[in-house]
């Protein structure tokens, strides 16, 4: 990832955090939150004849319920679009306190599509570490660092399917926007 993109995302996330830090709203048990996280990744890799640039946009959609004493449970669905496309879905559990959050994701279904091949029968784990502040009573904004680990058991190339064992890892800073009801 290029450092300027990371700095821009973190700066954009930090500005409202700084401005709204005095509000410091507490988490309310029984509150349901729908949140969307957005991240962008651009990479330039040298090739034999020229450099190749790939870019991918990551989006996670989470629906969580705040439980007793900061615990949260819910579901997550994620996509990545660009040079590499992927989709995954699963469950999320974690802890939230005064805007800080730590979440663990179990992703029993995942698919990854590259320009020449598709990886199937995937599963994975994830972790999100973040901070957000309330902008209004229902709306929050922040940033998170998103980690994903995927394992795949099948590869499809030009309609031919074979069994393989391969793994992919990704780390992406993301902006988050949440709506509580």
Counting helices, strands and paired strands, the structural category is mainly beta
Strands, count: 8
Q: State the distance separating the first and last CA atoms.
A: 35 Å
Oligomer: single chain
Q: Which bin fits the share of residues in helices?
A: under 10%
Q: Ranges with pLDDT <50 over ≥5 residues?
A: 1-7, 13-26
What's the average pLDDT?
83
The fraction of residues assigned to DSSP E strands is: over 45%
The number of helical runs is 1
Largest sheet: 8 strands, antiparallel, barrel
Tell me the strand order in the biggest sheet. Answer: 1-2-3-4-5-6-7-8
Plain-language structure description:
This protein has 181 residues and is mainly beta. 10% of the residues lie in helices and 70% in strands. It has 1 helix and 8 strands; from the N terminus they run αββββββββ. An 8-stranded antiparallel barrel has the order 1-2-3-4-5-6-7-8. β1 (32-46) and β2 (51-66) form a beta hairpin. The two termini are 35 Å apart.
Topology:
Blueprint: H1 3-20, E1 32-46, E2 51-66, E3 71-82, E4 85-97, E5 100-113, E6 118-134, E7 139-157, E8 160-180
Antiparallel strand pairs: 1-2, 1-8, 2-3, 3-4, 4-5, 5-6, 6-7, 7-8
Care to give the gist of this entry?
The protein has 181 residues and is mostly beta strands.
What structural keywords apply?
disordered N terminus, mainly beta, globular, 181 residues, eight-stranded antiparallel beta barrel, 10% helix
């Amino acid at each position: 990832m290029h450092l300027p993109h990371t700095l821009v995302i973190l700066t954009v996330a930090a500005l409202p955090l700084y401005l709204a830090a005095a509000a410091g709203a507490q988490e309310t048990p029984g509150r349901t939150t729908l949140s969307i996280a957005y991240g962008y990744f651009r990479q330039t890799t040298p090739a034999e004849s020229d450099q190749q640039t790939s870019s991918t946009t990551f989006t996670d959609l989470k629906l969580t319920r705040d439980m007793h004493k900061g615990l949260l449970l819910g579901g997550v669905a994620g996509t990545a679009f660009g040079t590499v496309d992927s989709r995954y879905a699963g469950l999320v559990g974690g802890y939230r306190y005064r805007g800080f959050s730590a979440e663990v994701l179990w992703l029993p279904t995942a698919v990854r599509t590259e320009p020449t091949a598709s990886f199937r029968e995937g599963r994975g784990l994830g972790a999100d570490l973040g901070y957000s502040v309330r902008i209004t009573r229902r709306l929050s904004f922040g940033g998170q660092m998103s980690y994903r680990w995927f394992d795949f058991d099948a590869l499809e190339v030009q309609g031919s399917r074979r069994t393989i064992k391969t793994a992919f890892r990704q780390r992406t800073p993301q902006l988050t926007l949440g709506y509580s009801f």
